[in-house]
Each structure stands twice: as structure tokens, then as C-alpha cells.
Amino acid sequence: MSATVLDLKGVSVLRAGAPAVSDLDLTVSAGEIVALLGLNGAGKSSLLRGIMGLEPVSAGIIQFRERDIAALSTAERARTGIGYCPEGRRLFPGMTVSDTLHAASGAPTAERVKRIAELIRLFPLLDHILEQESWSLSGGQQQIVAIARALMGRPEILLLDEPSLGLAPVICRDLFPAIRHLADRGGAILLAEQSLSQALAVADRIAVMHRGKLVLAAPAPEVSHDRLKRLMLSEGEPG
Q1: Helices 109-122 & 169-184, crossing angle to 10 degrees?
Q2: Stretch (H or E) spanning 34
Q3: What is the structure's pLDDT at 1?
């Protein structure tokens, strides 16, 4: 059985001072993708931001590799092995793709070059856009750069917030198999998504949120598309 990388116990998160996540339990293990599903406002982004220390956790325990990380800053959480790709990509203007990737790691230059070469094998598109300014790229290209940036630190777990948002289907067809490949190599991934089809195609386990609460956690093969839609819309389970 794979080791647990991230363990959330009774976690509650505040957003703008208001409860956004309530009493949530969830684990993510090495080599698996847990898809965190829910509509806008369900609390998915707030949970990821809470894990990264970007929003206050008002209750519960967040453990990374069996270590309570409550006292760690966002930067310290990143250095200890938690990668984060936020919704909206948030790339810096005036920087090329190469600059963006190099700036994301404090490793020596030779090691950064090696890591970029590894990322090009994962995302071949990068090889063609390294010297382009990040902000000049299409939305799909920017998303790949944002994920690559998060991977430059070689995290043990990657938190992905709505990677398919606004992307053309052809980009998603390339992006999600690469995400699956990361898990198959032993990485742990917590994937916040609204797209049921994309999530079900790659996830090992499904966790559904509604109004800040976890309403379902189950192996992906055991959950039908229709059941997920009902839960996300808070129609509940059939009687």
C-alpha cells in the first residue's frame, strides 16, 4: 500500500473571514490522483489555499508526510515538497517561459537545466516556447507553463486548481494524460476540477464538495457520472 503523503483531519478554512471549508477529512497517497469535485463556491480552491497557508485554517490538522505543517509559511511548505498551481495560472509579465521556470527553483543552474529537460519530455510543447514571453501564449500553453513551474521544485504532492478551466478540448487531451503520468511515476496529486469527464478519466479516487463540506469520498470506478452530478448540485442520493 502506498504511503500517505497528505492527511487532512477535521480541517476548516476561512476565506475573507467567512467559513469556506468545514470539518473535512481527506488523504492523498503517493502514486494516486484524488479529484476534488464541486461547483464554483464549493470550497475547492479555499481548501487548496488553506493547505498552502494562503488562507487561515481555523480548525483541524494538515499533515504532510506525517508532519503537522501548521507552523510553516507558504514558502516553507513549497520547499518541503508541496507544489501548487493556482487557478488562473498567474504568470509574471515580461518573463520568458525559460525565465519563469528558472525562477521557480533555487537549485544550481545545471540542476535547473536538467529539470527543464525532464519537463520537456513530459510536455514537449515547452521546447518550442521556451524563449517566448509567457503572457504572449495561449491559455492552454500558459496552463502547461504554470504546471511546469510548480513541478520545478520536484514536489512530492501537486495541488492543481481547475487546470481545465477555459482550455480547448484538444489541450485537455494532452494535459490530463501528462497529469496521470506524474502519478504513475509515484507523485501524489490533489486535482480540483469542475469537469467530471476530465476528472473521471484520470482520478483514482473522487471527493465531492458542496458548500464547504465533503459529501462523498470513493474510488473513482465506483461512482457514476449521474451520481456525481446529483451530489455536486446537492440533489442528494436517490431515496
Answers
A1: 120
A2: strand 33-37
A3: 60
Q: Check residue 89 and give its pLDDT.
A: 65
| CA proximity to 198, closest of 233, 232, 164 | 164
**pLDDT one-digit tens code per residue, 106-117:** 899 999 999 999
Upper half-sphere CA count for residue 190 (Cβ side, 13 Å): 29
Letter for the amino acid at 223?
Answer: V
Residue 90 DSSP symbol: -
Q: How far apart are the C-alpha atoms of 221 and 80, rounded to whole Å?
A: 32
CA distances to 81, 146, 150 from 84, in Å: 10, 9, 6
Helix (H) or strand (E) holding 118: helix 109-122
Q: Which band of pLDDT confidence, cut at 50, 70 and 90, is reported for residue 238? A: very low
The count of other CB atoms within 10 Å of the CB of residue 161 is 23
DSSP reduced 3-state for 237: coil
Q: What is the pLDDT of residues 46-89, one digit of tens each?
A: 999 999 999 999 999 999 999 999 999 999 999 999 999 998 76
Q: Do 159 and 84 meet the contact criterion of CB atoms below 8 Å apart?
A: yes
pTM higher than 0.90: yes
> Could you give the CA distance from residue 202 to residue 180 in angstroms, rounded to a whole number?
6
Query: How many Cα atoms sit within 13 Å of 210 on the Cβ side?
Result: 13
Report the C-alpha gap between 120 and 87 in whole angstroms: 22
The CA-atom distances, in angstroms, between 173 and each of 5, 27, 114, 164, 211 are 27, 27, 26, 10, 30
48 close to 159: Cβ distance less than 8 angstroms: yes
| Confidence band for 12, pLDDT divided at 50, 70 and 90 | very high
> Which set of grid coordinates corresponds to residue 90?
498567474
